[in-house]
Amino acid sequence: MSQRVIIAGAGPTGLLLAAELRLAGVEAVILEKLPEPSGESRGLGLHVRSIEVLNQRGIVDRFKTPETEAWPAMHFGLFWLERPVGPREDYTLAVPQWKTEHALEAWARELGTEIRRGHEVVALEQDEDGVVVDVEGPDGPYRLEGAYLVGADGGHSKVRKLAGIGFPGTGSSFYGVLGDVVVKEGQTVAYSAELYPGGWLANVPIDNGRKLRLMTTEFDQERPGDDVPVTDDELRAAIKRVTGTVPEFEETTWVSRFGNSTRLADEYRSGRVLLAGDAAHVFYPIGGQGLNTGLQDSFNLGWKLAAVVNGWAPEGLLDSYHAERHPVGRRVCVNTQAQVSLLYPLDKITPLREIFGELVKFKEVNDFLLALVTGVGVRYDLALPEGAGEPHPLLGLRAPDLELTTPDGPTTLATHLHSGHGLLISFGEEPGLDVSGWSERVHTLSAEPHPELAATTLLVRPDGHIAFASSTPDPDTLRHALTTWFGTPAAGAEAGDA
């Protein structure tokens, strides 16, 4: 059976996953049913957590063009949140989805990913040795073998349905229209989002202010049938119903409808079939969480799936994908539903919004909500061996991109994650364990102690999450972490105390 991984869907989720696999030397082929990139931009921004991911792979500058702007604010249920004070002007970047896809596709192709456009998965079979998919392509049907199949093919995922994975939740109870419009010459527009009795309207400048994304939500308007084309007139009418005014713009370059269906896959894995992105979870598109959650799915899955295909994965590594990401998907579903509860019906929830508005002024509440919608608050529950004591405060968190001082000069933590390997950092004190047996999977680095890290040893997974941290030498727990996430030492290199 082939050792390739087949990915259905060439959106951001599928493209990042393919790149992660190729970085680890695993063959990846993407099957995308659309013959050409759509050029659409349902997703409009990259949150700070996604920016960190791209920085850890050394490609974040591909998304920071001269036209890229930082979003001025984040909100929770249209309560504006204060971002941390400091140099992070790129806390959230206004990058249209088509640009994200273009940059990720270029990177994936550079790494050797094969992308077949106009090819759709129509059937699948799997057993303990691999998976076989039936594909409809431009030149007719064919079969393709692989070690695994990943459905990154959106909310209506064919892969999820073929695998028989349940997708419980709720259908849409209201709908909205979004459109990208060309503003009039000399017209200036500012980012805004306003709540009205019947819904809300967001205005988001894009393309360096030359275009404007208009996004309506109406809570008491029946959605037209899918067979009814979306038009400029529908967008204008929706805005008028919500705000009472008719907007002025030159032309519409793209218009679409959306709803608030909220669903979460029962399992992110069924044998050799896995789900990521919208194929695993859909929710109301508030706060730009869909695209970013999908990227985090791929970043979590990629190195684990590569480890399995490459033959060194410890038992249970691939199962940890569902264990870690399913709760995150559920959490996003909950937070988007909570935000809807703060929006309608306005005449009944106004007292709640008044109290909530007071709560948001507390820094702890503001920071909690900001971490919730950007994914910065995600912390994986990583188990310790019995008798290991209390977990270190850093365990399970994402490693911050700190400036480090090493014998070879200054560097940054993220720089040493570019290769997709794990990273073991010793801060002024050796870990007390010979780690040479893991040298092909985990790189090592010596650095001077850092004031922001109360640790002498740090083990960072390829996805940037901290798998081990200790303020004193603890070789037994470190050995447990290494074998849990990076398998047994390579043959002929038994790990022992240093």
Task: Report what the structure shows.
The model has no long low-confidence stretch (mean pLDDT 92). Helix content is 28%, strand content 27%. The chain has helices at residues 12-23, 48-56, 97-110, 158-163, 232-243, 289-310, 319-341, 346-360, 363-374, 475-486, and strands spanning 5-8, 28-32, 46-47, 69-70, 74-76, 79-81, 92-94, 114-117, 120-127, 130-137, 140-146, 148-151, 169-170, 175-182, 192-196, 199-206, 211-218, 251-259, 262-264, 269-270, 273-275, 281-282, 403-406, 409-412, 422-427, 442-447, 457-460, 466-470. It has a six-stranded mixed β-sheet with strand order 8-2-1-12-21-20. The protein has ten helices and 28 strands. It is α+β, with helices and mostly antiparallel strands. A hairpin with a 2-residue loop joins strand 20 and strand 21.
Write the layout of secondary structure elements.
Elements: E1 5-8, H1 12-23, E2 28-32, E3 46-47, H2 48-56, E4 69-70, E5 74-76, E6 79-81, E7 92-94, H3 97-110, E8 114-117, E9 120-127, E10 130-137, E11 140-146, E12 148-151, H4 158-163, E13 169-170, E14 175-182, E15 192-196, E16 199-206, E17 211-218, H5 232-243, E18 251-259, E19 262-264, E20 269-270, E21 273-275, E22 281-282, H6 289-310, H7 319-341, H8 346-360, H9 363-374, E23 403-406, E24 409-412, E25 422-427, E26 442-447, E27 457-460, E28 466-470, H10 475-486
Parallel strand pairs: 1-2, 1-12, 2-8, 12-21, 25-26
Antiparallel strand pairs: 3-7, 4-7, 5-6, 9-10, 10-11, 13-19, 14-17, 14-18, 15-16, 16-17, 19-22, 20-21, 23-24, 25-27, 27-28
Helix pairs in contact: 1-3, 1-6, 6-7
